[in-house]
Amino acid sequence: MNSIFKTDPGRVRILNEDDGGIFINGDGHRLAVVADGMGGHRAGDVASKMTIDFLQSAWAESNNITSAGQAEEWLRLNIYEVNKKLFIHSIENLECEGMGTTIIAAICTDQFVTLAHIGDSRCYLLNESGYKQLTEDHSLVYELVRTGQISKEDAENHPRKNVILRALGTEQNVEIDIITVIFEEGDFLLLCSDGLSNKVSENEMVEILSNNAELEVRAEEFIQLANQYGGEDNITLCIVEHSTSKESGK
């Protein structure tokens, strides 16, 4: 399995409130995570960093996750724990009041990928059946599209596109979307913050993922393209390739 993580502040913002990484446990399974600190809230960077630090530490201690059920339970328990820690931290530290973050996390094994998702960071899967977005945004605009009040085209430039309906750490309890999909040789998984998905089209994503360059080069192409289109937001992504070839990154 090959993998790469990259993050970039973009062309406009000085602070990068995104965080993430790809971590390997003792069983050789990968945990890929992207967290986008809540824009417009104080200490969004604190929320995303606390989330990644906790999950990285917990994953290092995990083992014997051999089934989708075990992976789903691990994500559920640890993300609930992160939510509790963030919420308490925001109450106890005035400068962090109201902080929160999105999260998309994927446990990647040779047979399956299990995803946990809160907010509008996304996960896509490229396989022999095509390219598919596996997550649904927890956003106001997505709800308007889902209920037929606006079209997908209208959503692209909606003035309230950045309004998130569900985030990690902003409330004492949080609902997590969790799914498991088959992961086979030749498949690609892309996790990203909205700084990428708001700028780069799905056709462009497929084109970049499908080229024969090293994963490092492909990840950099994503960053450069999002910045070329404005780079108003932080840009963060993980690529995981199910492959038997030499690893390109972690």
From TrEMBL:
Catalytic activity: O-phospho-L-seryl-[protein] + H2O = L-seryl-[protein] + phosphate; O-phospho-L-threonyl-[protein] + H2O = L-threonyl-[protein] + phosphate
Cofactor: Mn(2+)
SUPFAM superfamilies: PP2C-like
PPM-type phosphatase domain sequence ranges: 2-242
SMART domains the record matches: PP2C_SIG, PP2Cc
CDD domains (alphabetical): PP2Cc
Molecular function terms from GO: metal ion binding; protein serine/threonine phosphatase activity
InterPro entries per UniProt: PP2C, PPM-type-like_dom_sf, PPM-type_phosphatase-like_dom
Enzyme class: hydrolase
Keyword Manganese carried by entry: yes
Keyword tags: Hydrolase, Manganese, Metal-binding, Protein phosphatase
Family matches, as PANTHER family: PROTEIN PHOSPHATASE
NCBIfam families, alphabetized: Stp1_PP2C_phos (NF033484)
Protein's name according to its UniProt entry: protein-serine/threonine phosphatase
Organism: Pseudoneobacillus rhizosphaerae
Species classification: Bacteria, Bacillati, Bacillota, Bacilli, Bacillales
